[in-house]
Amino acid sequence: KMCWGIGLFIFLAQFCEIVRGRSVSGTSVAVTPSTATEGTTPTNAQFSLTATTRLQGSQSDSITIAASHAIWSAAGAVTCTCTRNGVSTSRFNGGMSAVSTTVFEAAVKNFWTVSAGDVLVFTCTDNLAAH
Hints:
Elements lengths: L1 E7 L2 E7 L6 E9 L11 E8 L3 E2 L5 E6 L8 E2 L2 E5 L2 E2 L7 E5 L2 E5 L5 E2 L4 E6 L7
């Protein structure tokens, strides 16, 4: 299990990729508007990371992003898009959710892969908690 932290306004996001020793590296976390203040709800949250090993849907691989404070207003569905190396991808469609108010999970779809070195950007636009 490999984890690291990135500060995001009021909470500390901690990224973890927790399947079979595979890993990702975090590069940034951003919320919009960038002037978000305590008590406001951002219009989106964006998580950027780079896969350091291959992830496979056929192996039930997923990416988990955890935070020390609520990112999501409730566990359940989230509306997110994903780009892979700057191009929109459906590799995670149907497999993205808020597992809890502090945990986001993106499962790689069956028969799809994410290659080592791929840059992934998840942009989520609903179910966001006020900060």
